[in-house]
Amino acid sequence: MPVAKAETRKTLLDAARRIVLAKGYAAVGINEVLADAGVPKGSFYHWFSSKDAFGEAMMKSYFDDYFATMDRIVAQREKSSAEHLMQYWQYFYDTQAADDCQGGCLVVKLGAEIADLSEAMRVTTKSGTAEIVDRIERMITDGITDGSVSVVDTPRATAESLYDLWLGASMIAKIHGSAGQLDRAMAVTRQVLHV
């Protein structure tokens, strides 16, 4: 794909992410995304067969960026696995505490909405969140190996429980407009990981 074409697709997906984070998926029209991206109306169907396909591509793009952030955290060889884990949770905290706790996580923003509206987006989100949990599990396992982390349950169960905790805390933080629930999630995370 030529650079200009790839940039057009990315521009559309980035514009959609910004708008959808503010409004939700169902409330956003394709014309609004095209106008924000500065892309001609006819270009949309060159890239995407439908709004549903567009939403699926937006979620995949979001997860790709998220995984890249997680990978950058783990790539810091001078840090222990416990430090990697806590840097990841701090990243999660900072993302969700932004904009008066309106956050920047599409999973938190769209999880329930897309589960009812789009099977393709639901499956993409299910796959993406499973990969996040896989990466958290690997960090926990690495932490047990290097002695910087200890957990009572299995690394998998711990990773699932912590991710669920943070998703729930993020939702309550949005409702309350306060980071208090995120602060509690951080404290519980430290206790669970013994760091």
UniProtKB/TrEMBL annotation:
<keyword id="KW-0804">Transcription</keyword>
<keyword id="KW-0238">DNA-binding</keyword>
<keyword id="KW-0805">Transcription regulation</keyword>
<feature type="DNA-binding region" description="H-T-H motif">
    <location>
        <begin position="29"/>
        <end position="48"/>
    </location>
</feature>
<dbReference type="InterPro" id="IPR001647">
    <property type="entry name" value="HTH_TetR"/>
</dbReference>
<protein>
    <submittedName>
        <fullName>TetR/AcrR family transcriptional regulator</fullName>
    </submittedName>
</protein>
<feature type="domain" description="HTH tetR-type">
    <location>
        <begin position="6"/>
        <end position="66"/>
    </location>
</feature>
<dbReference type="InterPro" id="IPR009057">
    <property type="entry name" value="Homeodomain-like_sf"/>
</dbReference>
<dbReference type="Pfam" id="PF16925">
    <property type="entry name" value="TetR_C_13"/>
</dbReference>
<dbReference type="InterPro" id="IPR011075">
    <property type="entry name" value="TetR_C"/>
</dbReference>
<dbReference type="InterPro" id="IPR036271">
    <property type="entry name" value="Tet_transcr_reg_TetR-rel_C_sf"/>
</dbReference>
<dbReference type="Pfam" id="PF00440">
    <property type="entry name" value="TetR_N"/>
</dbReference>
